[in-house]
Amino acid sequence: MEVARVIVDAPLPQPLDYAAGELGPAALHAGTPVFAPLGARSVAGIVVGRAAAPSIDVAKVRPLRALIADVAPLPDDWLQFTRFAADYYHCGWGEIAVPALPPALRKITGADPAKRVLALRKRYPGRAAESAPSAGPPVTLREEQRVAVDAIVAALGGFAPFLLFGVTGSGKTEVYLHAIAAALAADPAAQVLLLVPEINLTPQLEALLRSRFPGEPVVSQHSALADGERTAAWLQAHEGRARIVVGTRLAVFAAVPHLRLIVVDEEHDPSLKAGDGVRFSARDLAVKRAQMLRLPVVLGSATPSLESWAAAQAGRYRLLALAQRAGGAAKVEAPGAEGTAGGTSGLGVPGGTGATAESVGAPARVVAVDVRAHPPEHGLSGPLRSALAATVARGEQALVFINRRGYSPVLACDACGWLSNCPRCSTFAAYHKRDAVLRCHHCGWQQRVPRACPTCGNQDLQPVGQGTQRLEETLREMLPQARLARIDRDSTRRKGAAAATLDAVHAGDIDILVGTQMIAKGHDFRRVSLVCVLNADAQLLATDFRAPERLFATLAQVSGRAGRAGQPARVLLQTRYPDHPLYVALARHDFAGFARQQLAERRATHLPPFVHAALLTAQARAMETATTLLELGRELALPLAPQGMNLYDPVPMPLERVDNEHRAQMLIESPRRPALHAFLREWLPALRAAIAERKLRARWHLEVDPASI
Ligand SMILES: [Zn+2]
Ligand SMILES: [Zn+2]
Questions:
Q1: Looking at the CA of 415, which ligand is closest?
Q2: pTM score, whole prediction
Q3: Which residues contact 10 (CB under 8 A, 6 or more apart)?
Q4: Which tens digit of pLDDT belongs to each residue from 614-626?
Q5: How far is the CA of 426 from the centre of ligand 2 (A)?
Q6: Structural domains in the chain plus CATH codes
């Protein structure tokens, strides 16, 4: 009895066997999306092959329910790629592959799916058969941009990973566009994939691509699209009708049959790594996909991830440096030398227009303000206060950046020492003055602000520390004539609120914008001449080994928001550690120097990219259950671990309790990647079985190449 081997979205080690049944031989075709019975349910799956006989009792083989509309089978290379990803991240193949299908196709609805797909094809036809070949982008390239484009174009048709390193305004986007044009021109069927970290960057980019490639359908793939649009975009890419596919991290799994080039913008951005479900890295997978398909992949950033930077230093990636700011005179040396360009990130795509942000002046001057010499009052030290006042008086704009929303991170009682702890988490609930609530930013718990101290009845509870709301209030009192706005997750909850505030800033209707790192990404404030950074020290002291790298990227990005229309800008960084190497490197716009120092530290302390790591985490109602699971894992691991592998002791996570779940982790490190994966392949099934056998009531997951430790 011939059977179809089918993967479904579940942590299964093997595909499941099904009979083709009424669907006939078409259902045995590898790559065919199908609906299959699983227990009492019907679930979406993908046929990955066929077998002459089932691996289970013939009587237990059930027939497939239906084909998913009349979607063409997914190509072999796509199956191989998703298979690789599943093996690498040690999850079920279907857990990676099936969620890559658009949600509407995975749902069984009353409507006939075939009709639905047909209607979508009509509504979104994609490329017209006789569409004109894409006109080359009209912008003339500078020498170093041309060198970069030529290198990428020469590599078309073979695997070649590039790291495109350049400050904002150095014209990375223009390099992408020219490389895309060349890839599309070389082959009438060719498609390209462009990955970006943020959903809110895709509309700007889509508009830019449309204006530069008027003959070519461009589609976006990300989770904020409506079902119909998302399905249509997926079909257009899968059926070759869209030649340019833009998307967030999940789009790395887009079905793009004639893929010729992949671009990953802001390759350092943590959003390119999935934070739940299977924790895959879209950047790393993009490189792997390019390798499997033998095509060039371009990773672009102003502050590359240290992994990519190390790969470029070692010669595994080819470094393309844009040292010069377009239109600016800031001359910088090649990477590896002192004084290399750091600066900012961001696509530099002004909303909706076809132009790129090329009018850039000298990089902002970064000045550390020592809070020991200038003690802050309500969060703001003297130099920041006078700089803000002077900026507003000159009719210029200022940005005040603090990475904490709410009024204050804690509310406290001076009489008895009570603090506003979250009852569900091992952290504080922040004070939100306007809503008059205490709110936990980790689990969402909230409660009305108590009138008096819950322990001693003292009515005079005090906010401790600064949040965006409190800073806004302080600034209002200090500069009553200034027009203020705030951007953080609270102020932008209403749809369109962020865009409206940003428009007001661009129109010059705002003098001071206060915000969290939401203001750092992808926005271009041309009239801003002053940026104040508060409380960066908190991240400087964080225990996570990637914290310095992220801080540098964020600060470079925030600084780069300023002075982009030619006028000199200043960044005032309020700190207790003005001589910290990170701040010194930032002030010198010296990413290369910063990276060299960080990589030396990581090498000395055996951290990635010099070792390969996996992190087992467990969470449960009781810490004991979580640690029991990890101890069990450790016990099973010891006899399997090869020489040189480090199995660390289970420890509570830095934020130990979230939403009443206690969390612990265990780190596994190996100097050799194959050894780590060989070990995980043996160990995980044993662990899974042991957890089931002991009926441990804990949730757990394994993260390969963990984002933070
Ligand atoms: Zn009290
Ligand atoms: Zn909480």
A1: 1
A2: 0.90
A3: 38, 92, 94, 95
A4: 999 999 999 999 9
A5: 7
A6: 3-123 (3.40.1440.60), 129-322 (3.40.50.300), 337-406+466-602 (3.40.50.300), 409-464 (no CATH), 612-704 (3.30.70.360)
